[in-house]
Design goal:
CATH architecture: 3-Layer(aba) Sandwich
Shape: globular
CATH superfamily: P-loop containing nucleotide triphosphate hydrolases
Number of domains: 1
Strand content: 5-15%
Low-confidence stretches: none
Strand order of the largest sheet: 2-3-1-4-5
Structural class: alpha/beta
Largest sheet: 5 strands, parallel
Order of helices and strands: EHEHHHEHEHHEH
């Protein structure tokens, strides 16, 4: 089984994904880390030197390899926050994997991102917390419907630990194995 975790940045995709892979006894892949390896630079540098369009092309390439080319049978993939906003990526995810939307309220996301946004190019340039909050809320509003439409399952994350979320996802995805 291939499971893709989607949701806004800071909702816990990577943390929950690692824990879920442990629970399921399978491989974990962070799509951003795969892209960084492919390009030999971090996400912030890719955006700065090559632009978002180049990044999205590499993102689709990496996703395709993880879903179709890799030898991994069972894998949990933490997607980037914008992966499902790309129609080609969304189609591949919906047809080749179980897509889980980790839905978090804006307050939770802001709290989770409070340790810093340095590696988050789409939040670059926010001068203060108020501007950061405004940008997050605007982007979240723009993306929520896309996340919902891409997902096979929606999991609310607010107030839940990574272990609780991994166990909930494990139970909810069991119906897709049958």
């Amino acid at each position: 089984m291939k499971i893709c975790l989607t949701g806004f940045m800071g909702c816990g995709k990577s943390t929950v994904g690692r824990r879920l892979a442990e629970v399921l006894g399978c491989t974990f892949a962070d799509l951003d880390a795969v892209i960084e390896d492919m390009c030999s630079m971090d996400i912030k540098s890719i955006f700065a030197s090559c632009g978002e369009e180049f990044f999205r092309k590499k993102e689709h390439e990496a996703l395709h390899k993880l879903l179709h080319v890799t030898e991994e049978g069972n894998i949990v993939i933490a997607l980037g926050g914008g992966t499902v906003t790309v129609p080609e990526c969304r189609t591949e995810i919906q047809t080749a994997a179980v897509c889980i939307y980790l839905r978090a309220e804006a307050d939770t996301i802001i709290r989770n991102l409070s340790s810093g946004t340095a590696g988050r190019p789409l939040l670059a340039g926010c001068k203060d917390r108020a501007e950061l909050e405004e940008r997050i809320e605007k982007m979240l509003d723009e993306r929520q419907e896309i996340y919902k439409n891409a997902a096979h399952i929606i999991i609310d994350t607010d107030g839940k630990s990574p272990d609780e979320l991994a166990n909930e996802i494990s139970c909810r995805t069991a119906e897709f194995i049958k």
